[in-house]
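Checklist before submission:
- one chain only
- standard amino acids only
- sequence pasted in full

Submission:
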Amino acid sequence: MSKQKRKKQFYLLSLGCSKNTVDSESMAALLQRAGYRGADDKDEAGILIVNTCGFIQSAKEESLSALRELAATKKPDQLLIAAGCLSQRYGPMLVQEVPQLDGVIGTRRWMDIVPFVHQLRRRKHPEPLYHLPGDAETVGRDERNVLRAARQGASAYLKIADGCRRPCAFCTIPEIKGTLVSRPVQSIVEEAVRLQDAGVHELIIISQDSTDYGHDLGLKNGLSHLLERVVAAASGIDWIRIMYAYPGYVTDELIATMAETPQILPYLDIPLQHAHRETLKRMRRPANVDWVYRTVDKLRKAMPDLAIRTTFIVGYPGETDEEFAALLDFVRDMRFDRVGAFTYSYEASTPSATVSWQVPDEVKAQRVEELMGLQQRISLEKNQEQVGRTLPVLIEGYSEEDDVSVGRSYRDAPEIDGYVFVPGRLPEGEIVPVTIDGAMTYDLTGVPAGYQAGNTLITLDAVNTAAER
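Returned file contents:
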């Protein structure tokens, strides 16, 4: 490929969470608007971008590995750019790790990617360029009128806010992203309509703290207000899923909105992080565990089919045997549908790094194994309760080798939860009623409603006809 043709193509690798994926899609859209084309092969691109994650040590290592891999084969006419969270957090220190970097642009100014590329190409000296705004500048503003969503098949992540104002002692997000900035209600509603018109069936609401949406706009119960506006304008979207609810901010109004609105799935992701009061206080998290019991009870009474996902940090500094035992008891009591457990990651710039007693790594590993062993038993039992039910399943793919379609029920968020496996080829991107006939620890199996195992279904109309019978 000629250098001139390669000059107008970019290769963009997105690492980390779904929120990072949205930023990557937005950068790609801006580059395309400026006349660049995306390339699947890094050798065909004149611009190499890694949208990094720097939240914890393992994410930092993955990002550095990706940058070094691209740097090892980088051609003289190619630009290598580090973008995203790791860039924002470590800035010029990244070049010490990857000397071949041409530019470092922070996550707070992803929207400047096009002028940044132009600036790199105009530079007269080979030194790296940096575009790293300070604490006075945050994300969420001046978004260049670009869609703040990332589509994956019939699903789409829609970012409603950026940044976070919470004081969690273990978290680097406020340092990286800045404080909360909620996007305008009308912008989000218009984007939901665009996604509906593009054929999206599932809209996944994301931000660092979705339940804090609208605080900076002066909105009370801002998330409920936003959801009502989205539902009214984009009634053709079948599923709306809420991610990243903060403990203490799941209000009665939000519960009512979820329970009374069929489009909003009875699914809630609420990262609790721990269940012992003293641990939560050291984490600088809401420490009222009674609130969790009361609120989960309210949620389940309002939505009997509710699926709750949460996450826990195991081995947080100072976590005693008693505190960990309290976490296990809490998990037994609550019987969450989905649980993610992570060992504490030491981050030098966070307040948790100053806690004198760090839990040994071998104790962390033992505790996370014990916690997940408990949850696996609960997850299997919760899945077994689904056997015999007919669930709507969003079909995401088909394995020709196994002759099996793969999808997700309302109980399963993309990438982090389970799957439903159905024999035969079903219409990809459609929601199909499936009768569950088998349960595994994380996944389910089933057959299209009204059909016996072994039959192959080709069209959604046929599924619906069978279900009506």
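Reviewer check: The two ends are 58 Å apart (CA to CA).
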